[in-house]
Sequence to fold (223 residues):
Amino acid sequence: MANSQKPTIIFEDNHLIAAVKRSGQTVQPEPNKPLSLEDEVKQYIKITHDKPGDVFLGVIHRLDMPVSGIVLFAKTSKALIRMNEIFQQRAVKKIYIAKVENRPPKPNDLITHFLKRDDKKNFTKAFVTEVKDGYKSQLKYEVIETKGRYSILKIELLTGRKHQIRAQLSAIGCPIVGDVKYGALKSNADQSISLHAAELSFEHPVKKEMIYLKSDYPTKMNV
Fold:
């Protein structure tokens, strides 16, 4: 497989496998884009476990291309069906770390917006009051550190909308560093945005035990 790179695997058993996506990488294959995380993980399984033929790998959830962090895959169709149900039931705790411009209005808060998508522009707009075709969206944030005009936030995502964190933080005057689409002053040199999916916890779909996954955020996101 051309341009293959060994993925960073942080969890694996017979049912699930979790890897860390690099910023600039897609979760699934896309035309004219670098090798996807899905392809890298499939190649890893094929080589590591000496599997003949095609490798089954179910995509459970996704991260935006400029975002880094944990992505969970299913190694069996049974695990994929059950994990899809667990995500739909919002029975997964998702923690992100974001480096943002400015300091939020409060040291910690639960913020609620109604998000409306414009798929043609690939853009999500946040409204403070209910709007037609808007979806209620919530996240909690906590300020970990502030230095100069930048802050590091720990975010718990309570709903899973497209570009939710990006749109909601922009709406409170704290766009994610590098995210010019949502109001950041300038791009990051590598075209990433300073948002990292840092933790994922859920009940294992087969073993019924709690699984806690963690990935440290990149040092470039330090203030």
Summary: The chain is about 15% helix and 35% strand. The longest helix spans residues 37-48. The chain has a mean pLDDT of 94.
